[in-house]
Amino acid sequence: MAKVKVRTGKRYRSGRAAGHYDAIVVGSGIGGLANAALLSLMGKKVCVLEQHYTAGGFTHAYDREGYEWDVGVHYIGEVHKPSSMKRIFDTISEGRLKWAAMDPVYDKIILGDKEYDFVAGRENFIDELSKHFPDERANIERYVNLTRKISTSTPKFFAAQAMPKWLGRMYNWIRPLLVPKEFFQTTREVLEGITSNQELISVLTGQWGDYGQVPRDAAFLMHALIAKHYLAGGAYPVGGASSIAREIIPTIQKSGGEVFTYAEVDEVLVKGDTCYGVKMANGDEIFGDVVFSNVGFMNTVKRLYPDALKAKHGVDKWLKADAIERSSASYCVYAGFKGTTEELGLDTTNLWIYPNGDHETNVDNFRAGKTDQLPLIYVSFPSSKDPEWDERYPNKSTVEIVTVANMDDYKQWDGTTWQQRGEDYEKKKDEVAKYLLERLFERKPQLRAALDYYEISTPLSTQFYQLNEEGEIYGLNHYVDRFKQTCLHPQTPIKNLYMTGADVMTAGVGGGLMGGVMSTMCMLGLKQGKAVMDLFKNYQEPKDDAKQPNKKQKAA
Predict the structure, then answer these.
(1) pLDDT (average), residues 115-142
(2) Rounded Cα–Cα distance for residues 257 and 17 (Å)
(3) Within a 10 A sphere around the Cβ of 373, how many other Cβ atoms?
(4) Which tens digit of pLDDT belongs to each residue from 86-98?
(5) Alpha carbon separation from 396 to 1, 241, 293, 342, 364 (Å, rounded)
(6) Confidence band (pLDDT; 50, 70, 90) for 547?
(7) FRET partner for 510 with CA separation of 20 to 30 A, picked from 58, 219, 392, 412?
(8) Torsion sign, CA atoms 47, 52, 54, 60
């Protein structure tokens, strides 16, 4: 097969954009791409503006030194089998985006010297954990059933996000009567109500890195959605993470729209209290009937929001709310190895490595500088997950190693730019990278001799590429009270300006995707919003054989 370009989108230059669009989307993460694709399928002309050199937000990939890595799509659930999420992806990509199922063991939770497998399928999951906790089988079943109950009740919990803001506020007054009480409790509160076995709780919360908060702090809603999301197993986009944007962009282009890169937006244009377009960093102005901000809550109100309206709309009050807090920063080692998946003895199972099961103490001590011991190390094998990898990169493999980071450790480099931070910065980076590689080699010793290339991202990398001030990777933290904040509704106080993406729903590719769906429905209103659901309902698989994956791809 011909090697496809990892970079997606069209480079922005003055004069390339039309003077006016039906909608403008700032930021090309999955939420914004969903907005643009859904409106395009309804005949709207949409302009997506991405400040990075490639589209996709945290779903993008990049290549260097003959290797390719994803930056955020480590695995996705509920897309390799029929589901509402798969139908949404099918709709906005018009069937072009395909998925490959991972191995049955999708996550391996490692607490010190003990290992626990998360096996795909409800009964398999319960059976495997019951081998380790035979006296807890009934409680494990109760836990799994509760995650399903939370998942099926989630549409009721988030229904206000698709409504006009005034109606959503009224709805949320009665919301506690419509959903289980666990929606308003922390993960630890709920799990300690199910079992007193702390080791089991540590194992069940072994995926907390998927949303960045320990069980004491995270809403059980967030935990349950992640647990249920992967219960049937994990999957990976065929062709790599960049396939997500690549296969959605043609939907946007079909109705006359475009996805531009190198297209930094300086602010939204507002007259009175009505948004009518955006002003680019180079001074260009692009006009639109409606603008969606897909750059997160913090960047929306701090970067795009007009200064003249911040006091009037109470932006400072929003920012001072205890539940409005940036999520964790991270490191990620991107490593390339000589050899195929088979030659190197790799598989698709993710590793979650913890020093022990006391997640809260481990994180607290790390944050306070009391220990250098990392509270979490996550290892992913992206080249093993993509069935087309060997065709694009023969005799090569990749690994990604992620862990938490303290942004405060990098304050001395505030104001510096990429590749110009000096020797001390490079030395610090390399020390962390080598430490993480050693942890990998402890688990996969065969990889040591095969290492060909590595580099590491820091919180400053995320700050530079994603414009996230504190290097955060999950938007806002997922405290219980976060989901009560009216300022996180898609409809802002500025008419025709909407927020979209993960911060109006939850973290993750699935959360960002649903943020795009809900904000589109909110913008269209009660009468027209139903048209979005009709798009999903009426979607039909393409009949063109050329669009179907070949048998070698094991795609779904």
Answers:
(1) 99
(2) 9
(3) 10
(4) 999 999 999 999 9
(5) 17, 17, 38, 11, 38
(6) very low
(7) 392
(8) negative
Which residue type is seen at 524? L
Whether residue 1 has pLDDT greater than 60: no
Is residue 278 within 8 A of residue 265, CB to CB? The reply is: yes
Contact 345, 460 (CB under 8 A): no
Average pLDDT of the segment spanning 285-300? 98
Give, in order, the Cα–Cα distances in Å from 410 to each of 58, 366, 407, 418: 22, 15, 6, 13
In three-state secondary structure terms, 203 is helix
What is the identity of the amino acid at 492? T
- The Cα 17–Cα 260 span in angstroms is 8
Output the domain CATH number for residue 533.
Answer: 3.50.50.60
Q: How confident is the model at residue 553 (pLDDT cuts 50, 70, 90)?
A: very low
CA distances from 317 to 313, 323, 475, 543 (A): 9, 12, 19, 53
> How far from 448 is each of 69, 130, 332, 354, CA to CA, in Å?
19, 35, 18, 21
DSSP for residue 197: -
Residue 55 within any structural domain of the chain = yes
With CA atoms as reference, report the closest residue to 28 among 329, 330, 466, 471.
466
| pLDDT above 70 (res 554) | no
Neighbouring CB atoms inside 10 A of 300's CB total 25
CB-CB neighbours of 141 under 10 Å: 16
pLDDT of residue 511: 98
What is the tally of structural domains in the chain? Answer: 1
β-strand 76-77 against 234-237: which pairing, if any?
antiparallel
Q: What percent of the chain has pLDDT over 70?
A: 97
DSSP class of residue 393 equals S
- Which among 35, 14, 12, 15 is positioned nearest to 23, based on CA atoms? 35
Q: Which of 127-136, 215-224, 409-418 has the lowest mean pLDDT?
A: 409-418
- b (16+ CB within 10 A) / e for 458-477: bbbbbbbbbbbbbbbbbbbb
Residue at 511 is within a domain: yes
Domain span at residue 312 reads 10-98+238-324+476-539
Domain assignment present for residue 411? The answer is no
Residue 183 has pLDDT above 70, yes or no: yes
> What integer is the mean pLDDT of 22-44?
99
- Give the SS3 label for residue 366: helix
The mean pLDDT value of the chain amounts to 95
Report the run of H or E that residue 267 belongs to, with start and end.
strand 265-271
Report yes or no on 45 lying in a domain.
yes
Q: Residue 267 has which token pair?
A: 């602010």
Phi, psi of 350 (to 5 degrees): -75, 145
Q: How far apart are CA 404 and CA 452, in angstroms?
A: 25
DSSP state of 538: T
| pLDDT tens-digit map of 191-248 | 999 999 999 999 999 999 999 999 999 999 999 999 999 999 999 999 999 999 999 9
